[in-house]
Each structure stands twice: as structure tokens, then as C-alpha cells.
Write a structure and sequence with these properties.
This protein has 33 helices and 57 strands. It is α/β, with parallel strands linked by helices. It has a 22-stranded parallel β-sheet. The chain is globular and about 95 Å long.
């Protein structure tokens, strides 16, 4: 606040800096008692209100200072011709705001004295009794393994020589560290092993005198009660001398090494084998105490947690007498998430409580609302020990819902945007400061690594509860149905993206003035491809095809967000937005903008006025073709991520962005300002950098100017040339040589390089890349030899693909010669060599320790001329794949540790030793199964292809004798005779048969077997000429069956008998051209999918129940099939022509329909169903009917249902409904009494909206639904729309895009209150009459406007967005009270001739 920039700016505005100093003084005055207030607010609501008021005032003060600094920065970046006027307005506003905030702080300062708040450290949160060594072992569950592991360590010899062995038990509060230590302390083996034992509860204060005295008394009960530390340490040294002792220091918080060093001085006289156990919540404590072993204590399993809960909740721990409480109790235990303290506390609170409603209250209550809660106080202690900078970072994490997995890097960027990262006292970058903050919270057990993905972190549910408690009302998770509960003062908002986010979900935000964070969160199933880019194990370039996008109301980015002036974090990722409004430039405080995974095409130039912007994420914007040309003005930009976008060229002068810490991609251009030399000044760039289109580099000097060798913070560098035919790469050798990176680089990719050789800096003898961990050489087509990579000491992953001219790999590759005993590739763990068509010889040098002493994965594929030897000894290899090496004749290397082996389509890769040597092999894929006289004993997965003797193999007991085999795949095999029998192991869970012929010979005997464990059966792309019956009874656990592209199969009849499966997840039948009939059994199916069976005529289901039915491209199949089951929730029918003529598709009996899609050419189909049932079940995917003609009764019922109860309807579905049905205005008049108008019933395209449906939907839902086609093609329909809209009682929300009908809404006689979005492309006389009391919004896009609105008199309305008129002379004639934003994009725009009695906000793109 008192920074030089702020004070300098204020002096320039002739404002008194005393005002800010007074404000700063008041802030310091109230902040002095903040620690005490935070402690007391837990139990004192008045103090909590005071804290919230203070935080609110601080937020306002920060916004004020940010306004000042932002305005100063704007004036620095822009040539403002109106500076003097702005000074007056800006200065007056600043002074009044400073006075207002100061008054608030003065009030809070007085109130703090009334509340009794004091300076310094807050009072104790709660009374905590010291722990003891006693434990009731019968009440401990799930710690046997941990106990044995720790006892084993205690009884072992010291791994650290003569030093005392310290083991630290680390975990969050309440996880059971003390209990486990008590078990170990009282173990009889421990008693016998050690001469002396002592237990000390250290707790928050590391009192050296008290701890030493406690130890002395524990080992000598007769010791005097001295308070002299020197005497106590001498006594302790005497007692411990020549003794093997065991000491427990429980609940340690000390992070000061000197304290520990003073305490442990007497311990050094103990015998080797002496041990100390430390329990703590912090890894830093464990490190300070020089722990030789750190044991992170995990959560209890559900069963163990339930046992602990039941022991304390039920008499004698027996829950069987109360089954109704048992069911609720198990749900309560799930909330505990494996935390023993929570299970014990909640169980004890419910002991002897037999009322179901009380148990349900506990289940449905927040943790902080529970009676006699001991859980959060235990966790709150951890929070109280956090320094203030970590407290706000942790509290901010309450925006994440429970179980949400977040990324470290992204959270740090969010902290940075919110201003939480203080680098004033450090030379570190903000990113490094944030990294330290993050790992501090990890080390203190606030965050923990996700079990599902190593790049993610999570918070325990109770830690999440703590975050919500301490963040108060300032962080809100927006949940459906709770939008009205949002408070006006909250600052940070997060929510999960829904299937369609309408404006109403966010409408409450219009009342929130100080919102800083607008953060939609990734649903669990959405891809996060950006994390995959970080993996060093990527063997070849990959593309990403599935990019989901979700609809978002147009009003959110266009109307709502630009008005939230203090927004700092804005994310719209995964939404289907294609552009942003120019008004995005109004968000002058914005620091973080994330548009990743959106189809946005370009950014408005106004983005370049966001001078505070630090992070811009545009990754996976696959339609983004360009960046704003003035991006060089974003001088505070630190992170620009454009991975996997379609940006063709970088903006000019990007090198001016000297604050950039991360630039993921740079596309080299040919123009000045876009060349590779622009990277010269970006010396702080780190992380990933991909330099593309390097063929555009002018010369080697330009490459040298990029100064990659000086970019010490880069971890991952990717150098890419366009290697398409005809692209000139002259001088590529020199360019690559001059693009030498810094020696700190860890990962390097060279792709599309057409030079003849690699540069010297890449391998030995230069030894410049000593830290490189991963190297990928992709499509380097012209090189004839590899660089000497074998001597790179850190190289772990080497992937080579597409080196088309390499014929020999020899000594040059290893960086040594045949006589040398020097090992090579000493760190290499994975080697992949793919697609080298001329490679013939691999010279294996052997050498001391072999060429690849640590290699674990080896891939050799698509090298058709390779004939030489393979490395003969790979002692640590666990995975080997050799495929499509047609001339390779070589023995397999000795691989005693192998677990996965693939040898397919090679000439003769044979076994060097019997199969018994492959004792650990778990997965085998081979095209020569005959080599294996017996299968490895622990084999679980087997893939057999191109086998000529498969009949014999299946008849023998070779497979059946394997008791571990679970997955069997048969590919490209042909059966020539009927099998005598089929001998497969009973352990089989998955069977897949691909691209095989004459399966009838196999299946005849196969169906006589019994596979009690088989869950998945796939038959794909094969032939089977006859199959009378498909017995499901032999597969009692089968849940997934796929029959796809099976030729010759004419009928498929599934039978079921006693002992067969009772339910089925998925039945998938597709692409069977000869299939005529299918008969399904009476089973409960979850999903049935039948498609692309051109001759299928009969589908019988024998009263089977299925929840989802998909039928597609079966033109001969007659539908319906004996009526549909009542539990059907999803029905999809596509390209059917054989509906029963004049029949009714009766769907009225369905109990809970959720998704229906019918696309048919049948003109006589009548649908009869209750649409309102969709609303009752909370449908996420609305009804969708697409067929060309609806009967009158059905259509009217459909519309009536929509109007009465439908909650959501996607606009594209409605357009399709109208288009396919060719509905005319006369039909609508007939159906609905002429009350509504209808858009053009053109056969090809709907150009304007159906007002009827808009009104009906508005009556029921009142959402902003934009229903229009964005086509400018002329309409060929000769019918004119109805000119009147009468008797309507709801908002008309979209009358849109009529290209030629000027009288679409000529007059009205109802009580509509809004007319929105009437857009015409040709007519000027758009709206001749508007009802009194109406508001007119968006009268827009008229190309020939002489009088845009003829008569607007006597009404109280606002006219918004009179726009895009190139020659509008009269904009508003009348008494409208406000005209907003007449935006003109045509240079010929004239100043409006007349704007009568209207407030004009903005006229045109220039100030008028």
C-alpha cells in the first residue's frame, strides 16, 4: 500500500499520501489482534462476525490499491489524451473510497476493544491432555502391518552407523500416530530388546527443560526434581551410557534444528541399536530431527474404520441388533474417510442413541455442527501453527469440493493471481515461492498425493471441512438448487460444469460486486490431456480427438462477467464458446484467464488491454488460429500456454514480454518480429518450450540469437521442423547446432529434422547434456548415425522413431569401442526403436556390466531388415516388445526379471532357454506359440495370433493347466476342423477373438464348457457360418458381450437356464451383414446396442428388462418389439424405416425416462408419451425427437407437455424438430388456436425461431434460450409467417434471424414484458408496435435502417444494443429513457441525427 509506485502515482494526481498512510495504520492496528480473533471466533460468533468484517474491509482496501496501480500502469502503456479529466474523476473517487474504508477500520478498531481482543498469539483452541504410553489394544484396528514394519526397524541394527536411529511417523491429525506408537511401545519384543524406555508428550511447545526432565524421571523414578538443564543432561548422559534405549517423542511441532541438536546431545552415549520414534504432522519436523526413516501413516480401510466405529457406537460393538442404524452408520463411516479419530468420536457420540433421526442428523450434518466435536479442534491445531501466508493459501482451497483432484502448478497460478505469493523478502520468482508454499502444506499433511494420478493432489474430507470453516463466507461452491443462498460479500466462486449452464444458474452473481474468482471445475471424466504432455514416456507424437464442450448461456460471458470489475481469476474451460466480447477488456484486474478445451477461434484485441494479466491458458483450443497482434503490451504476462492449438503465427515483438516464465509453444515466422531470435530476451522462460516451424529460420545466426543456451530454467525443449515433401530445410544442421540448450535441460525432443547429422552437443565427448533424462528423436529421416548417447549419465528414456537412413547401430551409439570395458547407458530404463526401414545390424558390445545394466523396457518395432543380434543380457528388463521385424533371426536375451513379453510377426525370434526360466512372466503376446512347450506358472494375460496349430493347443491341457490365466486373446487364426474338446482354464475372466475364420468349429465345443469366472467376451471381425444357440448359462458372471462384424451369422438366439447370469451390463451387436433374427433372453440388461445389421428383421426380447436401448441403421427391422419395459430410461433410434404403418409408439408406461433420441424417415409414426416424467427424474439429456412428420394429437401433446413442465430443452434439438417436421404456421394455428406465430417452414433450414415454442418454454422456465439459425442463405419457402402474437402471458425471449420477413412481429396484444433479440438482415421496419410496459433489447443488425423503431412513445423501457447500422439516421424517436451501446463496425457511420430524450451510453467505436 505504501509502495513507491502507489505513492508516486498519488503525487501525480495531487492526492494526499497521508490518506493511504492513515488507512495503512488502521489496518495494522486491527491486524495486530487477528491471531487472537481467529482463535476466539470458533466459539464466539460476535468475534467471527468481526473477523469477517475485517476481511471484507481488507478486500476493499486491496481493490482500492489495485485500482490505483492498474490506472498507473494503464497510463504508462497508453497515450491518454484525456488525462486531466480522468485525474479529477479518478482522484475524487479514490479519496471517498479511502475515507469509507478508514471509517470502517476505525469502527472495527473500537469494536475489538469491546470484544476483548488482544495483541499477540491467540489463546489455546482447546484443552489438550498429554498423551501417555498406555493403550487398549482391543480398540485398535487395521494397524497390524504398520506395527510389524516399525517393530522390525526397531529391532534392526542401525543403518546410520553409530548414530541414534530416528524413525518419524508422519500423518494428519487424528490418523492414529500416537495409537500406533503406543502399540509398538508396549510390544513385548521391544521390551526385551531395549534396556531403557521413555515416553514424552512434547506437544506444541518444545520445552527443552521439561522434555529432558521427563526422560530422566522415566528411566530413574528416584531422580531429584532439578530445574537446571545442565545437571539434568549430565544425569541423563550417565543413565544412558552403555545402554540400548528406546525413546518416544510424541506430538512434535518443533522445526528448529538447534532445539533438537541441544536435546539429543546426551543420547550419543547410548549403545548402537538405540532408537527414537517421533510422531509429527510435518515432514519438515521429521527432516529437522534427522530421521533415517519416515513412515507416512495412511488411512484405515472401510472395514477397519467400521469396526472401530461399531465398537464405540454399539454395546459390545455388536450392530446386528440394530440393522436400520447399521445401514446409516456405514454411511457415516464413509464420511470419516479412514480417519480413526473421526470414527471413534462419532461412534462415541452415538453410543446408546437408538433414534434413527438422530443418526441421520449426524450423517447429514457438517463436521463443525456435530455435538461434542473433537475432530476439527484436533485438525484446527495444525491450522493455528501455519504462518499467515500459508493460512490464506489453505483457506482459498475451500473452493475445491471434497475428493476433487487438483494440480500443483495450476493452484500456484491461482494463488499468484489472488496476490497470495509474497516475494518481497526473497529473490525467488513468484512461482518458486508458490512451490515452497505448496510443499509446506504437503509436508504438514494438508495436501496428499492422489491415489489415482501422481500429478494430482487431494485434501482429506475433514481437512476440506476445516478449509471451509476457516474461509468463512468468502469462498463459495455453487451447487444446483442453492444459488439463492449466495451471500453478496463472497469473493471466490467455484462450481462443477453441468450439461448445459443456463444464465439462471449465475443470475445471483449480478448482486456480487467484489467477486474475484469465477472457476468452473473439471468433472471427473473430462480429459486432462495437458498432463499427458508432461510424461517423459511418450514414445511417439500423439493426437487428441475427444475434446468435450458444454453449452454456456451467451449472456454469461457477454452480459454478466464483463460487469464483475474486480475479477482476478476467470476460467471458461470446456465450454463451447467460440468468441469473447470486446467488453472482456473491462476486466482490468484480471490476472488469470483459462479458455482451454474451448472451440474459441480468436481473442478480441481488447484482451491486450488486460495489463495485469499473468496467466493465459489456451491449450487444446483446436480452432484457435491467431493471437491478438498487440500481445506485446501484456508486460506482466508470465504464463502463455497454447499447446495443441492451431495458432499459425506468433504475434510480433513477443520478446518484449520479459516477465514470461512459461511459453509452451513458439511458431517461427518469416516476418520481422516473429523470428526465432525473439526468444533472446525471454531469459526466465522455464518448464516446457516447443519451437515449431524451424524451417522458417533465416540462418544459423538467427538461431544463435535465440540464446537457448542461456535459458537455464527450461526443463523440456521440443524442436520441430515441418518435414512435409517440398518443404525446404536448407541449413537445418547449422540451425540445430546453434539451438544448443542449457545443460540443466531434462527432456529434449527433436522432430522432423532433415539434417544429415546430429550436433556434437547432443552426446559425448562434449558431455554438455549431463542432466538430460529423456531424449526423443522423431522422424529425423536423413541422419545415418546416432550421436554417442551411451555416456549421458542421467539418460533414462530414449525413444527413436523414423530414422529412415540408419543402417547400422554400433560403437558410435554407445560412445565407446569394442575393446572398452566402460559401461554405457548406465541410467537408461526405457529404450524404444521404431520405424527404421533400412536398419540391418545392431552391434552389441557387451562390456563390463553390459550395455544396458538398468534397462527395464525395450521396444523394437517396424524394422523389417533388422537381422543382427540383440543384447544378450538384460538383468532388470521387465517389458520386451519385438514386432514387425520380418528378417530378425535371433535368440531372446536372458531376461530373468521379465514380466511382459511380446514377439509378433518376426522371422524367428526364439527362446534361448526353456519357459521355466520365465518364472515372473505375467503377460505374453506371440505369433509363435509352438515355441512354448509349457506356459510360465504365473501367466495372467495371453495373446495368440497367426497360429497354425491352434486346434491342437486348445485340445491339449497346456492352457488348462495354468491356474493364473485370466485374459486370453486369439487373433488372426483360422479353424479348419471341429475340435474334439476345448481345454481352457477355469480362471479365465476375459476372452477376445479377433479377425479369425470358421468360428463355428470352435464355438460348438466351447459352448459345452463352463466358465464360472468369465466376465467379458468379445468376438470381432470374424466369420461364423452357423450358430444355433448361444447359451448364457455357462457364463454365470458374464457382464459384457460384444459380437461385432461377424460375417455368415444369420440368427442369434440367447438361451438361459438355471445357474446362468441374472443381470447383464452390456450387450453389443453390430456390423453383422447376414444377421436376420435376434432373440434375447429374459434377463435384466443395463444396455443393449444393436446397429448396422442391414438384414435384421426380427428382434424378440421375451420380457427382458433393459434400461438403455440403442438401435441404429437396421433398415429392415420392424419396431416396436412387443412393447418396451417400464424401467427403460434411455432410447436411441436412428435411420429406421420400418416402424409399423400408422402405428403408435406407446411410451406412456415408462417410469423414469431420461434420454430419448428418435431419428426416422417414417412419416406415419405417432409418439405418445408423458414428457413431464423427464422433469421428475432430473434428466440430464433432454428428449430429442427427429422425424419428418408428427400427427396432430401427438404434436399438440408434446408442446403442451413442454409448456407445462419441461425444465431444459436445447435449442439445436428444437430447430431439428421443426426442420424435420416441416411444420407450417397453419398447423400451429390448428393445434393451438392461432395463439402463436411460427417461423419459416422451409424444407431445408429453419431461419427464424418458432415464437410459439419460445413462449411456451418461457412460461415454464423463464430461461434465456437463444433459438435461431446463424445462416444468411435465402429462404425458399413461399409461405408467410403469422403477423400477430396475441394472448401470450410470458416473456418472448428470442425472435431471431429472419432474413426476409419484415412483419414477423407486426403487432401484439398481450402482456409480454420483454422482446429480446429481434435480428433482421434486410428490413428496417422491424417493429411497428410494441406493447406498453415492454422493454426492447437488441434491435440489431439491420442493413437498411431508415427508422429503426418507428414509434416508441409513452413507454417506460430501455433500448439496448441498437447496433450495426451503417446508415441509421434516426436511432430512437420517442421518450425512451436509456440507450446503451450503439456499436457501429462500419467506417461510413455518421453521427446520429436525432436521439431524443434518451440517455446515450456509448455510440460507436469512437467517442461521439
Amino acid at each position: 500500500m505504501a509502495s513507491r509506485d502507489v505513492l508516486t502515482f498519488l503525487r501525480g494526481q495531487k492526492l494526499s499520501a497521508t490518506l493511504l498512510r492513515k488507512l495503512q495504520l488502521k489496518l495494522l492496528e486491527v491486524q495486530a489482534v487477528l491471531n487472537d480473533a481467529e482463535a476466539k471466533q470458533i466459539t464466539n460468533l460476535a468475534v467471527k462476525d468481526w473477523v469477517d468484517e475485517l476481511k471484507d474491509a481488507v478486500y476493499d482496501a486491496e481493490d482500492l490499491v489495485d485500482d490505483i496501480t492498474t490506472e498507473a500502469l494503464r497510463r504508462k502503456m497508453e497515450d491518454d489524451s484525456q488525462t486531466q479529466v480522468r485525474n479529477i474523476i479518478f482522484g475524487e473517487g479514490i479519496e471517498s473510497r479511502v475515507d469509507e474504508i478508514t471509517d470502517t477500520l476505525e469502527y472495527l478498531s473500537q469494536k475489538k476493544d469491546v470484544l476483548g481482543l488482544k495483541k499477540g498469539v491467540g489463546e489455546n483452541l482447546s484443552k489438550r491432555w498429554p498423551t501417555t504410553s498406555l493403550v487398549d489394544e482391543s480398540g485398535v484396528y487395521g494397524r497390524d502391518v504398520n506395527r510389524e514394519e516399525i517393530v522390525k526397524f526397531l529391532l534392526s541394527h542401525n543403518a546410520s552407523g553409530n548414530e541414534i536411529g530416528v524413525i518419524a511417523l508422519v500423518g494428519m491429525g487424528g490418523i492414529g500416530k500416537t495409537t500406533l506408537t503406543q502399540l509398538v511401545y508396549n510390544d513385548r519384543r521391544v521390551d526385551r530388546y531395549f534396556d531403557l524406555k521413555a515416553w514424552v508428550c512434547v506437544s506444541e511447545e518444545f520445552d527443552l527443560l521439561r522434555i529432558t526432565k521427563t526422560i530422566v524421571k522415566a528411566i530413574d523414578s528416584g531422580a531429584s526434581d532439578d530445574n537446571d538443564l545442565n545437571l539434568l543432561q549430565l544425569k541423563l548422559k550417565e543413565r544412558l551410557s552403555r545402554k540400548k534405549f528406546f525413546l518416544v517423542l510424541d506430538d512434535v511441532w518443533n522445526e528448529n534444528y538447534n532445539n533438537w541438536d541441544r536435546l539429543q546431545t546426551p543420547f550419543t552415549v547410548g549403545l548402537p541399536g538405540s532408537k527414537i520414534i517421533v510422531t509429527t504432522r510435518s515432514d519438515k519436523v521429521a527432516s529437522v530431527m534427522r530421521s533415517v526413516r519416515i513412515h507416512h501413516l495412511g488411512q484405515l480401510s472401510f472395514d477397519d474404520c467400521w469396526s472401530l466405529f461399531a465398537k464405540h457406537a454399539f454395546e459390545n460393538g455388536d450392530s446386528s441388533l440394530h440393522p436400520e442404524l447399521q445401514e446409516i452408520g456405514k454411511e457415516i463411516v464413509k464420511k470419516c474417510k479412514g480417519l480413526p479419530l473421526a470414527a471413534k468420536t462419532l461412534g462415541g457420540a452415538l453410543y446408546s442413541e437408538l433414534r434413527v433421526e438422530e443418526w441421520e442428523n449426524v450423517l447429514n450434518s457438517e463436521t463443525w455442527d456435530l455435538p461434542n466435536d473433537e475432530i476439527l479442534p484436533a485438525l484446527r491445531l495444525s491450522y493455528s501453527f501455519l504462518p499467515s501466508h500459508l493460512k490464506q493459501c489453505f483457506a482459498y482451497c475451500s473452493i475445491f469440493p471434497k475428493d476433487y483432484e487438483f494440480e500443483k502448478e495450476n493452484l500456484i497460478l491461482l494463488w499468484m493471481a489472488e496476490g497470495f505469493l509474497d516475494q518481497s523478502a526473497s529473490k525467488k520468482t513468484m512461482e518458486k515461492v508458490g512451490d515452497g508454499y505448496f510443499y509446506d502444506l504437503v509436508s504438514r499433511s494438508f495436501f496428499q498425493k492422489s491415489s489415482s494420478h501422481k500429478s494430482y493432489f487431494v485434501m482429506h474430507d475433514l481437512i476440506n471441512d476445516l478449509a471451509q470453516l476457516v474461509s468463512g463466507k468468502f469462498c463459495v461452491q455453487l451447487k444446483d438448487g442453492k444459488t439463492n443462498e449466495i451471500l453478496e460479500k463472497f469473493r471466490h466462486l467455484s462450481y462443477f460444469i453441468s450439461e448445459c449452464d443456463l444464465f439462471e444458474r449465475f443470475e445471483t452473481l449480478t448482486n456480487v460486486n467484489g467477486l474475484r474468482t469465477f472457476l468452473p471445475l473439471n468433472l471427473g471424466y473430462l480429459p486432462r490431456y495437458h498432463l499427458m504432455d508432461k510424461a517423459s514416456k511418450q514414445m511417439h507424437p500423439c493426437s487428441y480427438h475427444y475434446l468435450p464442450r458444454f453449452p454456456l448461456s451467451y449472456r454469461v460471458p457477454n452480459d454478466l462477467l464483463p460487469k464483475i470489475q474486480y475479477l482476478r481469476v476467470l476460467s471458461l474451460c470446456y465450454y463451447g464458446i467460440i468468441d469473447l466480447p470486446d467488453t472482456i477488456g473491462n476486466l482490468k484486474h484480471l490476472r488469470y484467464l483459462d479458455l482451454s478445451y474451448t472451440p474459441i477461434k480468436r481473442l478480441p484485441n481488447s484482451v491486450c488491454s488486460l495489463y495485469n494479466l499473468q496467466t493465459l491458458i489456451l491449450s487444446f483450443c483446436d480452432n484457435l488460429v491467431e493471437l491478438p497482434i498487440m500481445m506485446s503490451k501484456l508486460i506482466r504476462l508470465r504464463h502463455l500456454d497454447i499447446r495443441h492449438s492451431k495458432v499459425k503465427e506468433m504475434p510480433s515483438q513477443l520478446g518484449q514480454l520479459k516477465s514470461l516464465q512459461k511459453l509452451t509453444n513458439y511458431r517461427v515466422g518469416k516476418k520481422s518480429g516473429t523470428r526465432v531470435g525473439e526468444l533472446r530476451e525471454l531469459s526466465h522462460t522455464g518448464g516446457i518450450l516447443s519451437i515449431e516451424q524451424l524451417q522458417n529460420v533465416v540462418d544459423g545466426g538467427d538461431a544463435l540469437e535465440a540464446n537457448l543456451v542461456g535459458k537455464q530454467y527450461l526443463d523440456d525443449l521440443r524442436l520441430e521442423w515441418n518435414d512435409d515433401d517440398g518443404v525446404d530445410q536448407n541449413g537445418a544442421d547449422i540451425v540445430l547446432n546453434n539451438l544448443q540448450p542449457h545443460s540443466n535441460l531434462k527432456r529434449l525432443t527433436i522432430q522432423g529434422y532433415d539434417g544429415l547429422r546430429f550436433p556434437d552437443w547432443l552426446g559425448a565427448p562434449a558431455m554438455l547434456m549431463i542432466n538430460m533424462v529423456s531424449l526423443r528423436l522423431w522422424r529425423c529421416k536423413n541422419v545415418t548415425a546416432f550421436p554417442p548417447l551411451g555416456q549421458l549419465p542421467s539418460l533414462k528414456h530414449l525413444y527413436i522413431s523414423g530414422a529412415e537412413e540408419v543402417e547400422r547401430v554400433g560403437a558410435e551409439f554407445y560412445g565407446t569401442d569394442s575393446s572398452s570395458t566402460k559401461p554405457s547407458f548406465v541410467s537408461l530404463k526405457a529404450l524404444s526403436i521404431l520405424s527404421m526401414p533400412k536398419w540391418k545390424e545392431w552391434l552389441c558390445l557387451g562390456g563390463q556390466g553390459g550395455e544396458f545394466p538398468r534397462l527395464k523396457e525395450l521396444y523394437i518395432k517396424y524394422c523389417p531388415k533388422l537381422t543382427g543380434d540383440l543384447p544378450n543380457h538384460l538383468p532388470l528388463l521387465t517389458k520386451l516388445e519385438i514386432e514387425e521385424c520380418g528378417q530378425l533371426v535371433a535368440p531372446l536375451p536372458r531376461v530373468p526379471a521379465i514380466r511382459e513379453l511380446t514377439t509378433r510377426n518376426n522371422s524367428d525370434v526364439f527362446l534361448r532357454s526353456p519357459a521355466s526360466d520365465f518364472m515372473r512372466l505375467e503377460s505374453l503376446s506371440t505369433s509363435d506359440i509352438s515355441q512354448w512347450t509349457e506356459l510360465p506358472p504365473v501367466l495372467q494375460k495371453l495373446w495368440i495370433e497367426n497360429a497354425n496349430t491352434l486346434e491342437s493347443l486348445l485340445e491339449e491341457e497346456k492352457l488348462q493347466s495354468n491356474t493364473c490365466l485370466q485374459n486370453l486373446t486369439i487373433r488372426n487364426c483360422s479353424f479348419s476342423r471341429t475340435l474334439r474338446r476345448v481345454c481352457l482354464p477355469i480362471t479365465l475372466k476375459s476372452l477376445c477373438i479377433y479377425e479369425s475364420k470358421n468360428l463355428e468349429f470352435l464355438l460348438l465345443e466351447f459352448f459345452k464348457c463352463h466358465f464360472s469366472l468369465l466376465e467379458l467376451l468379445n468376438i470381432l471381425d470374424s466369420t461364423c457360418n452357423s450358430l444355433a444357440c448361444f447359451p448364457l448359462s455357462i457364463f454365470p458372471r458374464l457382464t459384457f458381450l460384444q459380437i461385432n462384424q461377424v460375417r455368415g451369422l444369420e440368427s442369434l438366439s440367447f438361451s438361459i437356464s438355471e445357474g446362468g447370469p441374472t443381470s447383464f451390463d452390456d450387450l453389443f451387436i453390430s456390423g453383422c451383414p447376414n444377421l436376420v433374427s435376434i432373440e434375447l433372453p429374459a434377463l435384466n440388461f443395463s444396455r443393449i446396442h444393436i446397429s448396422i445389421c442391414k438384414n435384421l428383421k426380427s428382434l424378440l426380447h421375451n420380457a427382458a428388462c433393459f434400461q438403455s436401448l440403442t438401435l441404429g441403421d437396421c433398415p429392415e427391422l420392424i419396431f416396436p418389439i412387443q412393447g418396451l419395459p417400464s424401467n427403460l430410461t434411455s432410447l436411441s433410434i436412428k435411420n429406421y424405416g420400418k416402424f409399423t404403418s400408422q402405428m403408435e409408439l406407446d411410451l406412456q408406461g415408462l417410469a423414469s425416462p431420461r434420454h430419448f433420441s428418435i431419428d426416422s424417415k417414417c412419416e406415419d409414426l405417432e409418439v405418445n408419451m408423458r414428457i413431464d416424467t423427464f422433469c421428475k427424474t432430473g434428466s440430464s439429456s433432454p428428449v430429442r425427437f427427429i422425424y419428418p412428420k408428427l400427427l396432430a394429437s401427438s404434436f399438440s401433446t408434446l408442446l403442451e407437455a413442454f409448456g407445462n413442465s419441461l425444465q431444459e430443452l436445447f435449442s439445436d434439438q428444437l430447430r431439428e424438430l421443426l426442420r424435420r417436421n416441416k411444420v407450417s404456421s397453419q398447423q400451429l394455428k390448428t393445434f393451438l388456436g392461432g395463439r402463436f406465430a411460427i417461423a419459416c417452414p422451409c424444407n431445408r433450414r429453419v431461419f427464424s425461431c418458432n415464437v410459439l415454442l419460445v413462449v411456451l418454454l418461457a412460461m415454464a422456465m423463464n430461461p434465456m434460450i437463444s433459438l435461431f439459425s446463424r445462416s444468411n442463405k435465402p429462404c425458399h419457402c413461399e409461405k408467410q409467417p403469422v403477423s400477430k402474437l396475441t394472448e401470450h402471458t410470458a416473456a418472448v425471449k428470442a425472435i431471431a434471424w429472419s432474413p426476409h420477413h419484415s412483419g414477423l412481429l407486426a403487432s401484439g396484444g398481450g402482456t409480454a414484458d420483454w422482446y429480446i433479440c429481434f435480428w433482421s438482415t434486410t428490413s428496417g421496419n422491424q417493429l411497428n408496435h410494441v406493447d406498453i410496459g415492454s422493454q426492447v433489447c437488441n434491435l440489431a443488425r439491420s442493413k437498411n435502417v431508415n427508422e429503426l423503431v418507428a414509434t416508441l412513445t409513452g413507454h417506460s423501457w430501455r433500448v439496448l444494443y441498437l447496433a450495426m447500422s451503417p446508415d441509421g439516421q434516426t436511432i430512437v424517436t420517442g421518450a425512451g429513457d436509456e440507450t446503451l451501446q450503439f456499436r457501429n463496425f462500419f467506417p461510413s457511420m455518421k453521427t446520429p441525427a436525432r436521439v431524443k430524450d434518451a440517455g446515450v451510453w456509448s455510440l460507436g467505436r469512437r467517442h461521439i
